[in-house]
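As agreed, record passed on underneath.
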Amino acid sequence: MVTIRPHRLILIGCLISGFACPASLALAGSLDGRPKIVLHVPTNQAATCQVPIADCSNAATAGRIGDIGAGAGRIVYLLLERGFIPRPAVVQFGLSYQQNCPENLSDGVGIDILSWTSCMRTRLGNGEWPEPGSSLDFLTECPPQPPSLVVLGSFYLSAYSADTLRVDASHPDRPGGFIETCNSGSGFYLYYPDFGSVVFSSDGQMAGCNPCVERCPDIPTPVPPAAPAA
C-alpha cells in the first residue's frame, strides 16, 4: 500500500481544483506537515549555514564512532523544518545527551560537544548551551518568505563511545518546545514526536530518529553512554 503524506494530498487537491497552492506545500518534507527539529550527520565535515540536504526526509541519523578514530571530531547539523508554520519568529527547544548531566560535557565518555556554530541570533534558555540538558531560543528575524528547511546551527563533537544526541524539551518542567510566529500573540507547541535524534555506534548501523519520516518516541528514556573501548 502506498502512503501519501497529508500535505501532499492537499497539494494534489488544490492542483486538481485549479486553486493556487501555497509554495510551502510543494517543498514541505515533514511526515504530517507539522514543524520538526531535525539532526543530520553529513558525510562532508565542512560545516556551513547552507542547507546540506534538499529535504528533511533525507537527514542521516546514524554515525560511526570509528570512522576516523574513536573520539575524532564530527559535524552534526541542527535543522528546522517549518512545516505548516508560514513565518516562525522564535523557536524554543532543548538538547539531551550524557543523561542531561552538565558536568559530563567533556568527560571523554559518549558524546562530548567541542564547539557550537550558530546560524542565527539566539537567546539563552535553560542552562549553558550546548551543555547536556540545556536549551536555546532561536530568533529568525521574521523574513518575508522563509525557506521550508533552514540550518539553525551545527555541533562539532567527539563520540568516544556509543551515545545518543537528541532534541529535547525546552525546560525540564515542560512537555516539549514552542514556536512563536511572526503574527503577534500566536504560537505552536512542539512535542517529542517532532524532535529528532542521532545515534553514534561502533558500526554506524544504529539509526536515531528522523521526525520527518517517522513518529519519534513520546518521552524518550535517557540512556547512559557506553564505556569507551579499552
Remarks:
- The two ends are 48 Å apart (CA to CA).
- Confidence is low (pLDDT under 50) at residues 1-28.
- The longest helix spans residues 6-17.
- The chain has two helices and twelve strands.
